């Protein structure tokens, strides 16, 4: 099998290109540092199987941050048949330096000049034949996103792979620095690149005058976030109701008759345990999907990088920088990839501090719990505001923690942010990306949820003599045992059980509630309305937000930090926030 690696600066479209040629689904986004790990996919080219490897972007060789080291280790250890260097044509002057460094590796190389569409739009022209000759490398021009130039690429790669032999770099050379390479770059640019003398004020500039406005930038940002939640509720609620209706109709007319002959207890486990538990989680799929559709627009349009820029000053007061802010936003999807995303940071302390705060980000699993309680206990016009307040609480907890620990993890890593141009997200990418995230959500949920709901069902139905979910059941006893801790913050025994399962995965919480109260959808909603008032619900939600990250997050923190002590700190250091702060807040709210 032949091996081909994709390399280049961050945000040049390597993953877009990789996905397009191999049909894989690597994460793509208008943000430098999207890919932090190797991703591979196989493809038949001509008559030989070729393995493509998508690498994290690098600015420089030798690199300093964790993801750049990944690339170096890769180059040192992997025999390659071909190196494909992806270049953003519109920034070719800045990217030639890296290309020249890579030439020092003396590997067979194909240069892909990407973003041909933007180059044309900006009036950047490259004399490919001439540049290719001067560099002694094959070169093609493409647009990875819109699919131009692929026939030429396929022709070229077939030619290059036809009689290739894998070669390994024998110890990395002493790379010339970008300063040392500057004269050479200048000469190449002069000879074969045509850049318009003055860029006309593009749409990006015009939009940035609004979105990065000194005073209005931040309010606009919060307004956009508010609209996002409003949109999720507006579109998501009817979809969710429809889903509930279908699931419960299916249960009544099809499932109930099928299991009617089974023993009562088993019927209960199947219908009220597994089906209701899993079904209740499933009704949130439309909302989660909408959330990711909107987030993909925010991310892929380039607005996420603007958010980093806007927040940078504020973040630096807390020992973090704009990138940490973006990671927190990414953590709104799932904390795990956000934690891995911190690999773009060079300073280990900055990484640790960011990893300490990311788990406070209100991830989609917690979102699902909140959506459930908010829809149940708050009026429709209050709902978006309540959710917004939880997002603000999430930020506040993250920032507060950073502020408390910034002394312990002080660093002075300079932060240079690349602000990419605004790009129109394609509908195809929006759906692909959201589908991918949804699969992850369902994957994580299904890992635990069936086992989780069975366990909850057993706990709430044993010993068999006791009334289900009453104080005499195992769950009831456990809840009562823990009650002294939770009563002061207004969380009742049933909810305590749900919280315990939430430690494994937050996805289980709502399913667990359905089983604990022995009810599904609308009945569950009514039961909650009877048992829980809004203050209790808010308290419960805050607690769910703060108490502890889920198991996968804890495992990722352990792996990324390689530090057990830190992992313990990141789970238990939050204890301080829980009791006192939540209590205080609730007392104020309840007057
Ligand atoms: N206009 C245009 N945009 C593109 C093209 N190729 C990629 N993009 C966009 O550029 C952004 C970055 O794409 P990615 O594929 O994530 O870039 P990457 O090189 O893998 O980035 P890192 O993983 O961060 O190093 C995304 O918003 C893409 O949609 C292209 O040919 N034209
Ligand atoms: Mg990438």
Task: Detail the topology: elements first, then pairings.
Elements (H helix, E strand, L loop, with lengths): L1 E7 L5 H9 L16 E7 L2 E7 L11 H12 L4 E7 L3 H12 L5 E6 L1 H7 L2 E2 L1 H8 L2 E4 L8 H13 L15 H15 E2 L8 H9 L5 H43 L4 H19 L2 H16 L2 H14 L5 H10 L3 H7 L6 H10 L6 H14 L5 H23 L21 H35 L12 H13 L6 H10 L5 H9 L4 H11 L2 H13 L4 H11 L2 H9 L2 H16 L1
Parallel strand pairs: 1-3, 1-4, 4-5, 5-7
Antiparallel strand pairs: 2-3, 6-8
Helix pairs in contact: 3-7, 9-10, 9-11, 9-17, 10-18, 10-21, 11-18, 12-13, 13-14, 14-24, 15-17, 16-23, 17-23, 18-21, 19-20, 20-21, 23-26, 24-25
Guanosine-5'-triphosphate binds next to helix 1 and helix 4.
Protein model, in words:
- By secondary structure, this protein is an alpha/beta fold.
- The protein has two domains: 193 residues, 3-Layer(aba) Sandwich (Rossmann fold); 353 residues, no CATH class.
- It is 62% helix and 7% strand.
- A hairpin with a 2-residue loop joins strand 2 and strand 3.
- Helix 9 runs antiparallel to helix 11 and helix 23 packs antiparallel against helix 26.
- It is elongated.
- The protein starts with a strand and ends with a helix.
- Magnesium ion (MG) binds next to helix 1.
Any descriptors?
591 residues, alpha/beta, Rossmann fold, 2 domains, six-stranded mixed sheet, two-stranded antiparallel sheet, 26 helices, binds guanosine-5'-triphosphate, binds magnesium ion
């Amino acid at each position: 099998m032949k091996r081909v690696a994709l390399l280049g600066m961050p945000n040049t479209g390597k993953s877009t290109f990789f996905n397009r040629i191999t049909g894989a689904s690597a994460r793509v986004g208008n943000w430098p540092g999207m890919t932090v790990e190797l991703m591979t996919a196989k493809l038949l080219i001509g008559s030989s199987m070729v393995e493509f490897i998508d690498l994290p972007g690098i600015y420089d060789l030798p690199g300093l941050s964790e993801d750049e080291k990944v690339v170096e280790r890769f180059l040192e250890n992997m025999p390659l048949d071909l190196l494909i260097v992806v270049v953003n044509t519109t920034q070719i002057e800045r990217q030639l330096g890296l290309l020249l460094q890579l030439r020092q590796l003396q590997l067979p190389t194909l240069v892909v000049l990407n973003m041909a569409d933007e180059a044309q739009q900006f009036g950047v022209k490259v004399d490919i034949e001439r540049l290719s000759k001067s560099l002694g490398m094959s070169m093609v021009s493409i647009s990875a996103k819109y699919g131009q130039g692929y026939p030429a690429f396929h022709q070229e790669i077939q030619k290059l792979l036809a009689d290739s032999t894998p070669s390994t770099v024998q110890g990395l050379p002493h790379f010339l620095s970008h300063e040392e390479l500057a004269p050479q770059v200048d000469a190449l640019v002069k000879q074969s690149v045509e850049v318009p003398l003055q860029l006309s004020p593009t749409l990006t500039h015009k939009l940035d005058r609004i979105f990065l406005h000194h005073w209005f930038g931040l309010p606009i940002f919060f307004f956009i976030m508010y609209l996002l939640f409003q949109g999720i509720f507006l579109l998501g609620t009817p979809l969710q109701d429809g889903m509930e209706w279908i699931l419960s109709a299916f249960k009544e007319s099809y499932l109930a008759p099928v299991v009617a002959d089974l023993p009562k207890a088993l019927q209960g486990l199947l219908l009220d345990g597994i089906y209701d538990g899993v079904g209740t989680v499933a009704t949130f799929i439309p909302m989660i999907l909408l959330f990711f559709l909107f987030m993909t627009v925010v991310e892929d349009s380039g607005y996420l990088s603007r958010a980093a820029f806007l927040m940078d000053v504020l973040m630096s007061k807390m020992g973090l920088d704009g990138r940490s802010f973006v990671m927190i936003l990414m953590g709104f999807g799932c904390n795990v990839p956000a934690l891995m995303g911190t690999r773009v940071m060079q300073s280990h302390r900055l990484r640790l501090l960011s990893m300490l705060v990311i788990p406070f980000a209100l991830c989609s699993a917690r979102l699902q719990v909140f959506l459930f309680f908010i829809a149940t206990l708050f009026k429709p016009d209050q709902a978006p505001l309540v959710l917004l307040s939880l997002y603000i609480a999430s930020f506040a907890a993250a920032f507060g923690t950073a502020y408390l620990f910034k002394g312990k993890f002080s660093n002075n890593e300079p932060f240079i942010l690349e602000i990419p141009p605004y790009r129109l997200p394609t509908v195809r990418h929006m759906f692909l990306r959201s589908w991918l995230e949804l699969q992850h959500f369902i994957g994580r949920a299904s890992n635990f949820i069936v086992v989780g709901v069975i366990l909850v069902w057993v706990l709430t139905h044993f010993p068999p003599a006791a009334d289900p979910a009453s104080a005499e059941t195992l769950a009831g006893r456990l809840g009562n045992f823990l009650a002294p801790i939770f009563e002061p913050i207004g969380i009742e025994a049933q909810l305590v059980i749900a919280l315990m399962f939430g430690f494994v995965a937050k996805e289980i919480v709502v399913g667990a509630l359905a089983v604990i109260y022995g009810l599904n959808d609308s009945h569950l909603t009514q039961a909650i309305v009877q048992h829980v008032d809004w203050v209790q619900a808010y308290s419960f939600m805050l607690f769910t937000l703060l108490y502890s990250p889920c198991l996968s997050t804890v495992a990722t923190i352990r792996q990324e930090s390689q530090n057990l002590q830190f992992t313990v700190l990141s789970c238990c250091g939050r204890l301080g926030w829980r009791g006192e702060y939540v209590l205080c807040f609730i007392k104020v709210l309840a007057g």
